[in-house]
Amino acid sequence: DAFLFCFLSGSRSSKTFKPKKNIPEGSHQYELLKHAEATLGSGNLRQAVMLPEGEDLNEWIAVNTVDFFNQINMLYGTITEFCTEASCPVMSAGPRYEYHWADGTNIKKPIKCSAPKYIDYLMTWVQDQLDDETLFPSKIGVPFPKNFMSVAKTILKRLFRVYAHIYHQHFDSVMRLQEEAHLNTSFKHFIFFVQEFNLIDRRELAPLQELIEKLGSKDR
């Protein structure tokens, strides 16, 4: 991973940050998304993230990854006016975690940039992966590539960083907008999902470890 993960010591807008990624209606993936939404409605998130019987794991991970991209996109879209070059000159998740951007193709050497710039790079990069039919096939019967799981893991690891930034740097704005319940539910769903399929390394989750433990203990 080309990321540098360095430890350092010591008026409401509903604009969407990026265009929503739509799953085509009538497709099997659309049915899976509907299933996911229905089980979420039951309130049991641990159960909601489990692979439905007889379904393909790659397809289940693909549908949910698209859904998390859309959720995070929308959540970040509500606070973009508070996340500026001036307020967030570096992409961080609290004082101990700072992220530098590299995607391995256009930007090979990690660069230090502001949070809005970093998140723009990140979401654009994710969108490009989701739009790539060879990686995320939307047509029935088109197989997923061999490297699908590693690509999905990288996408989810990077999407986590947007949650981490929002929680550490913008939670007061989230509270003022009365979005905290929405943010917490979305993040809890995300965490239960990545835990169920072991998709993000524990070290990467460190910036929100306390919150993750709290969300998990409430659900035992």
Automatic annotation (TrEMBL):
- Annotated InterPro entries: MOB_kinase_act_fam (IPR005301), MOB_kinase_act_sf (IPR036703)
Record carries keyword Glycoprotein: no
Record keywords: Zinc included?
A: yes
For this UniProt record, the keywords arranged alphabetically read as follows: Metal-binding, Zinc
Top-level taxon in the UniProt lineage: Eukaryota
Any Pfam family hit:
Mob1_phocein
Q: Where does Zn(2+) bind?
A: C83, C88, H165, H170
Entry's PANTHER family? Answer: MPS ONE BINDER KINASE ACTIVATOR-LIKE MOB
Name the record gives this protein:
MOB1A kinase
Q: Which organism is it from?
A: Callipepla squamata
